[in-house]
Structure prediction request, 640 residues.
Amino acid sequence: MMIRVCYVAMIVLCAASALKSGELQFSPIQPKVASDTVQIEYNVPFASLKKAKDLHLICYVFTANDQKPYAVQYKLFQMEPSKPDHAVFRTAFVPKEDAVLILMKISDGNKFIDNNNEEFWEMICTSKQGSYIPGSTFRRILTYTDVLPKPCARKIHPEKALELLKDMPKDELGMFHKNYLKALLGYMTKEIPRDSLQSKIANILLPFQPNYDNEPEFKAFSQALRIIGKGSIADSVEKIYESIHPLDEFCEDAAANRVFSSASKEMFLENAEYFMKKYSYAPSMIKITEGYVRVQIQSGNLLVVAARLLRDPAVPVQPCLDIAEGYIARDSLKEALRWAERGANVAKDIASVIQPKYMANVEFAPEQSRDIAKSLMLTAFIHKLQKNFAQSLALYKEILTKYPHDLPASQMTLVYQFTTELLDALSNQKDAYLYASKAISEGVENQKIIEDFKKLHEFLFDEKSDSKAFELAFKELKNQGEVALKNRLYDEMLEISAIAATLKDMKGNTIQISDWKGKVVFLDFWATWCGPCKKSFPGLQKLYDKYKDNPKVQFAIVNCWERAEDRKVPVKEFLEKNPYTFPVFFDEKDKLVSAYGVTGIPTKFILDKQGIGRFMEIGMEEEIKFIEDFTQKIDVLLAD
Prediction:
């Protein structure tokens, strides 16, 4: 089942837009593995390629044994178009020998994704002799549930999965596994209520003895135990399985789930230690180590966790940076620099980077660049604190030249600010003026940069110009910055299809999302149990106050995932104690939050006047920055 969480920090600032604009054709339809050459042709309107760079076909290859696919990419080559308004791309590949099913999408790894409206394009492989490969139907069933990681997660269709289960070859799954899937999919289609699901699962389990040599079936057995509340038994049998098959994918997933479902801080640390020791190069290692380090630092154990990880070669980038920031807070700059530089080295070393097998190189490269940029930024800042100005300046310049698009605008503002200050401190006022000018012309300036620009202008030009020189120079740069900011926001825009859904207000009135067509709509998903959601509300109230009298802007603070039979009760109690005036609505069946694919709250969307989702933010950020960012985004949509 989907894990619902609240996000403490802003973790996604922009995303590639998933769209359906092209047509992909391939032949043969059911290729033979390691034999047939599959010819691919992709047709797409030129208008959809405005943000696209080098396009690739990304294939998610499912095998008979592993739940998660591995990704393979093939470069697409542009051909002569058959239509004047369409581009045509082609490529070819031979399916890998272990493939039973391939899901395909088109992407440049950055702004452009065409995943066939989240359905992907599906290719069912056959054996070298052209016969059915056992396991392919089971893999197809799983792709229609919520078990796949985000890059290859297709739209959830339990109804389609049930149809496939009915038509599955008799010997592909055992009776227990089939009955378990039938019950679980019935629950997902709402044909079976949760209480009935638990009783059905309990009856299915009664006569069943687990087969420790059948990974998919054993995983279903473990999940079944958890559904009926036998989590401790599931933990025990999982550990037995791990001792028999330590390298199986299920072992890694089970150990990670025990970390994420830990009931206490002590249990979390214990489970995390076990996972980090045993599965150091697993994709979950990144989040688990991040959580482990942050919990230890918050508990006052910075020195303990630093000593624990000092000689661990598998520490990911972010934990290194968290430890570095912990040492900065203690004014231990030498140790802080050691950990920040370690983070930068890990980010740059391809052999040290943990790349999930289900991410193609073109998808993973932007993440690696972001890690490098933020590592360099922290290392440069520590050098600045140590007054190593030349070293600090070199690192800030590296960010500006090699990674200018890999940090949020707010962090690029600081990079420009510190670069200007360092050049000025090193008596290079001419270059300092140029960098301050560039920050303003790119729309990433702050008040400090403006003040420095004015001082530098006076220092360099006052004797050679009249009194209006500064105002004229600043006005020109500011105009350029406004254009750059608008272009940047247009470039960040998503294309999330309009969703038809019904909400209810505090008085019980029914509202259709479509009723707000013609308005810019601000959606914020929240729950009363979500601390970060509530912590963001003072800033949200200030943002609402800016637009409450604008008839072209609609705010909808949407309650979801509430842990109460009557959702109005905890919401009403909360609002009585906290008299916010922004409009609150209820997503009573959680249909809207599900349709948007939300997995954690707070999550915010801004819809344009046609209901298309243009901006999405997950988590929370500092209040002033939040108000500034969302004001810019609302205003650019109002101007359209």
